[in-house]
Amino acid sequence: MTATTQQNQPPAPPPRRSDATRTAILAAARERFAADGYERATIRAVARDARIDPSMVMRYFGSKEGLFDAAVALDLRLPELARVPREEVGRALVDHFLHLWEESEELTAVLRVGVTNEAGTERLRAIFRDQMLPVARQVCPDPEQAPARAALCASQLLGVALTRYVLRFAPAQALAREEVVAWLGPTVQRYLTAPAP
User: Fold this and answer.
1) Residue 172: its H or E element
2) Could you write out the DSSP letters of every residue in 10-76?
3) How many CB atoms lie within 10 A of CB 121?
4) Contact status, residue 132 vs residue 154, Cβ threshold 8 Å
5) Residue 54 burial by Cβ neighbours in a 10 Å radius (0-12, 13-18, 19+)
6) Domain 17-71 is classified in which CATH homologous superfamily?
7) Where are the domains of the chain?
8) Of 78 and 144, which is predicted with more confidence?
């Protein structure tokens, strides 16, 4: 493209103000739900954090439940397991989940809300049912056992997240990420691929 052609191109439109407002509200809501849980988080607090009027939150999302649903529309971005040696799947999953929890408030928000609110509980169930169950089906020796195996994996992954990122137990926080992977990876691996007891 020549300089003349570039000059004739119309400038890219600036981002719409409504998009920026919506993004700011969602970012503030994720942090607020993660810090306070569903019951204690308020529309006013989210609006204050986003530096907007509370009526704008209601305009975009309709209710606190609508805001929560939009804020935690969560994709676990699970790794492509076809590229992971079967005997390393457990370690890969634990490492992936630790990375997710450390980079984003969304999982912490869902977990915190999931233990105190039925809507949050259902959201957490749906995330793991829709995203973790296919992983178990992909690697377990008997697909009929996949739901139980996925549930056992979730118990480990959610348990470490609860103690490390929500309840913040000092010994759980003190473990280096590599140590958590070394401890939990073999357990998750066993749940996924070991023969049923």
Assistant:
1) helix 170-174
2) PPPPPPPHHHHHHHHHHHHHHHHHHHHHHHH--HHHHHHHHTS-HHHHHHHHSSHHHHHHHHT----
3) 14
4) yes
5) middle
6) Homeodomain-like (1.10.10.60)
7) 17-71, 81-193
8) 144
pLDDT tens-digit map of 106-163: 777 778 777 777 877 888 888 888 888 998 999 999 989 999 999 999 999 999 999 9
For residue 76, give every residue at least 6 positions away whose Cβ sits within 8 Å of its Cβ, in sequence order, or none. Answer: 96, 97, 100, 127, 131, 132
Residues in the chain: 197
CA 146 to chain centre: 21
At 23-50, the pLDDT tens digits run 999 989 988 887 887 888 999 999 999 9
- Tell which residue, 72, 189, 195, has the closest CA to residue 135: 189
Q: Which tokens is 88 given? A: 């390393």
